[in-house]
Design brief:
Shape: globular
Number of strands: 18
Structural class: alpha/beta
Number of helices: 14
């Protein structure tokens, strides 16, 4: 069985970071809500459990708690911030409001250089984010680090199985954070660290064969890295019983349909190209709400695939769903809020005749690219910027019209062309244009204009869960703006979005 570290989520903004840090060290991790039933946890046979931080206080009414049975499973446990506090509280220690809250950098003094602090400097900088602190340890526990404001900056039980840190080892601001997590995984939990792209592919192929049997399968192939990697994994599992369907929704970028067909004809895939633009645009006519757009598109995709599946006699549908899609759509992370429906997760219809296969559902974007390299995909395909399943529908703010789509396609192609010319395309996680439902006054050739606005959006990111706006040089932005205003009819103003995620999302809708 694959060794697994469970991350139980109490609502921390850093929960995904914990899972990522574990995976970076070669151990598979999975996020579950703090309320995950004990029998399910036992059934997963985790090698270790990590309790995340969270915004609550153990004294708040309705604050998230933990099944005490977890501590009887004889599994190594690491509690981080709130995770440590709820652990101390439940096991008989004393947690109190701190007279001096700690948010930001702090220095701890390690008083026990064994286990999780092995080979860690006695004094090291960490990242704190708490208003409560542990003042009295539970019976059988000892303090292993302290700070100016926290007499128990870290603790462990005398058996060396249960640990807690008041600080966040998962963030880069904690100098020895990677080493602390590594010590917990390999010294305490005795993990092997065998989770690699190669092992993932081998496991996925085996699971797909077992699930599919002798059935035929269709795959939603968009041309992006996610669906391409998903298709190649399934192809290795069932070969010619895979039928890839590329649907032109009428919401694609300039010349995209032609490029996708050309790109994948050499992969040996059974590729079916369906022009369904009129079908999708008719369904979307007059719709302004982004959630409705996503759900309409999600359902219509399924209906197209069901139509094709009846011809092929397929029973399964492959999608390139990623872990961030799942997290944002269905809020598996304890008390965390649902952000938006992704067309291939929360946007799926309740009733559908196809059973889903989602081989990438456990992966973050950079992990998908690593798997793609293992499968032999080209750098051009792997480094292509993410493109949302709903396509340009969520980049036309408000009602969708063919005129707006055409303007957006031209503006977007200019933006991408210029950042490629400048050699910065691969430095950017995602770049695109948005057409806004507002008009502004301009002047062209001594005449007044009253036309639409294009917003440019470009971000840097590792996995799409957080993002910063890209610092594109002014000269490049100037060229992009000048070209769009001069070459795209109906646009007289260009603006640049400098919002981060959070609080904004990468896409506008």
């Amino acid at each position: 069985m694959r060794e697994t570290v469970l991350v139980l989520d109490f609502g921390s903004q850093y929960t995904q970071l914990i899972a990522r840090r574990v995976r970076e060290l070669g151990v598979y991790s999975e996020i579950k809500p703090f309320s995950e039933p004990l029998e399910r946890i036992e059934g997963m046979r985790p090698r270790a459990i990590i309790l995340s931080g969270g915004p609550a206080s153990v004294w708040d009414e309705g604050s998230p708690s933990l099944n005490l049975g977890i501590f009887s499973l004889e599994i190594p446990i690491l509690g981080i911030c709130y995770g440590m506090q709820i652990m101390a509280h439940l096991l008989g220690g004393r947690v109190e409001r701190s007279t001096k809250r700690e948010f930001g950098p702090a220095e701890i003094e390690v008083t026990d250089g064994l286990d999780i602090f092995s080979n860690i400097p006695q004094k090291t900088r960490v990242w704190m984010s708490h208003g409560d602190r542990v003042l009295e340890l539970p019976k059988g526990f000892v303090s292993i680090a302290k700070s100016e404001n926290s007499p128990v900056a870290a603790m462990k039980d005398r058996q060396g199985r249960i640990f807690g840190t008041q600080f966040h080892p998962e963030v880069v601001h904690t100098e020895a954070g990677r080493e602390i997590i590594s010590n917990f995984l390999f010294r305490v939990a005795k993990c092997r660290g065998a989770w690699t792209p190669k092992s993932f592919v081998e496991t996925a192929i085996k699971e797909i064969r077992e699930k599919v049997g002798g059935s035929h399968v269709i795959c939603a192939l968009s041309g992006g890295v996610d669906s391409a990697v998903a298709a190649l994994i399934v192809q290795r599992a069932i070969w010619d019983r895979l039928h890839c369907i590329f649907v032109d929704t009428g919401l694609l970028r300039l010349n995209e349909a032609k490029e996708v067909v050309e790109t994948f004809k050499d992969f040996g895939l059974n590729l079916i190209h369906i022009d369904a633009g009129k079908r999708f645009l008719d369904k979307l006519r007059g719709v302004e709400d982004p959630e409705k757009k996503r759900k309409i598109i999600g359902e219509e995709f399924i209906r197209v695939f069901e139509d094709e599946s009846r011809v092929i006699k397929a029973e399964f549908l492959v999608q390139g769903t990623l872990y961030p899609d799942v997290i944002e759509s269905v809020s598996v992370r304890g008390p965390s809020a649902k952000i938006k429906s992704h067309h291939n997760v929360g946007g799926l219809p309740e009733k559908m005749n196809l059973k889903l296969i989602e081989p990438l559902r456990e992966l973050f974007k950079d992990e998908v690219r690593a798997v793609g390299r293992e499968l032999g995909l080209s750098s051009e395909t792997l480094e292509r910027h993410p493109f949302p399943g709903p396509g340009l529908a969520i980049r036309v703010i408000g009602e969708i019209t063919e005129e707006k789509l055409e303007r957006l396609r031209l503006a977007d192609s200019i933006f991408i062309e210029e950042i490629k010319k400048a050699g910065i395309y691969n430095d950017i996680w995602q770049a695109f244009c948005v057409i806004l439902p507002v008009k502004t006054v301009g002047v062209m050739g001594d005449e007044r204009t009253y036309e639409n606005v294009i917003a440019l959006r470009a971000v840097t990111s590792l996995d799409g869960m957080t993002a910063n706006w890209a610092r594109i040089p002014y000269g490049i932005l100037e060229r992009v703006s000048t070209r769009i205003i001069n070459e795209v009819k109906g646009i007289n103003r260009v603006v640049y979005d400098i919002s981060t995620k959070p609080p904004s999302t990468i896409e506008w809708e």
